[in-house]
Design brief:
By secondary structure, the chain is α+β, with helices and mostly antiparallel strands. It contains 10 helices and 20 strands. It binds adenosine-5'-diphosphate and magnesium ion (MG).
């Protein structure tokens, strides 16, 4: 058995250290950091320390992120999503505007991608029993796979305004593929509402940026090279991009995937087969205005694979970069719309 990690992380090229001014009223990049959604956030706002303090920005950010978790985290037993998942009722319930917003976009992208992005796929993820190393602990029988597939599908979910219902009691929603992006959007909107127009927001690798750095330069993002390195110590910049006033999301198996007898197992499921995806595409990066949209699309393209994904990206005029593993290393492909953001 051949086990290795393929590491590729989207990192912020502009350095993570804050350059606090000696004078509180001088504009600079103020760094705000914390934890949310089982990961970290790094936010840079071009402002004065005085303003950030008087706006109470960090505690406002923590409070909106807490609200997002209370709506959409399946790890919180009494979150809105958990209550919906555990309820056996098929009656419609009232949901919050935020939850409805994410569901609306998930359903739109689900339909657009012909079911490749499917937020009801959770029971299949569990069936494949991904352990702490993203390694399937068991290969399910065909019968169990077929039975589990019966219980998934966006057709069983109904949203009308803020009224949500399911037509099968056991339908299980999992927004983990889009919620981080939504969190980024909510924080970006909060920062703008507080009068700051130059910023960079990053939650667990999903990024949205606006305006300029304090030096007057545009924000730049480095996409790290995929390197076969079990220690994860080797890192190199694959591509620098200047996304302008947009969001950048990357989906991929790079963080931790398992390869056994030449077969790769991923935590991303193709709803059409009910099985983990198994192709040579290792990552997809999407640039779009909304982080939630970029996040969902990157996963949808990852499910499609390089060939079908590239066709879909072209047809839908998406800015997308695909990195595939080949016998001779890694190969990249991008759409015309992505090309404009390459440095
Ligand atoms: P990535 O960054 O690789 O896109 P995410 O963490 O955003 O990964 O999403 C992966 C998670 O999404 C999985 O752990 C699983 O819970 C869920 N998922 C897997 N396959 C799909 C799919 N086809 N559609 C929607 N969600 C999926
Ligand atoms: Mg994703």
């Amino acid at each position: 058995m051949n086990k290795f990690k393929l590491i590729l992380v989207v990192c912020i090229v502009v350095g993570i250290t804050a350059c606090f001014p000696s004078n509180d009223s001088v504009k600079s990049e103020i760094l705000l950091q914390g934890h949310t959604m089982g990961t970290t956030y790094n936010i840079k706002v071009v402002s004065t320390l005085e303003q950030v303090k008087s706006l109470n920005l960090q505690s406002k950010i923590d409070s909106v992120l807490k609200q997002v978790n209370q709506q959409m985290s399946t790890y919180i037993p009494d979150s809105e999503i958990s209550r919906f998942n555990h309820s056996q009722s098929t009656d419609a319930i009232d949901i919050s505007t935020g939850f409805a917003r994410v569901l609306t976009e998930s359903l739109r992208l689900g339909e657009l991608s012909n079911g490749k992005l499917d937020i009801t796929v959770g029971p299949l993820v569990n069936l494949w029993g991904f352990g702490p190393e993203q390694r399937p602990e068991k290969v399910p029988s065909d019968e169990r796979l077929a039975a589990t597939k019966e219980g998934i599908g966006l057709a069983h979910l109904h949203l009308e305004g803020n009224q949500l219902s399911k037509s099968i009691p056991n339908l299980y929603l999992d927004l983990s593929t889009i919620a981080k992006g939504y969190g980024v959007d909510v924080v970006a909107e909060l920062i703008e509402a507080n009068g700051i127009s130059n910023y960079l927001v990053e939650i667990g690798g999903e990024i949205r940026l606006q305006g300029f750095k304090h030096t007057g330069e545009l924000w730049a993002i480095a996409i790290e090279k995929p390197i076969l390195d079990p220690s994860g110590e080797q890192r190199a910049v694959h591509q620098v991009i200047i996304p302008k006033d947009n969001a950048v999301a990357t989906s991929g198996d790079y963080r931790n995937y398992y390869e056994a007898d030449g077969q790769r197992f991923s935590h991303i499921i193709d709803p059409a087969t009910g099985k983990p995806i198994n192709h040579s595409l290792v990552s997809v990066t999407v640039i779009a205005q909304s982080s939630m949209t970029a996040d969902g699309l990157s996963t949808a393209l990852m499910v499609m694979g390089a060939e079908q994904g590239m066709v879909f990206a072209r047809e839908n005029d998406l800015a997308a970069l695909f990195i595939s593993k080949t016998e001779n290393g890694f190969e990249e492909q991008y759409t015309v719309k992505f090309k404009q953001y390459l440095k």
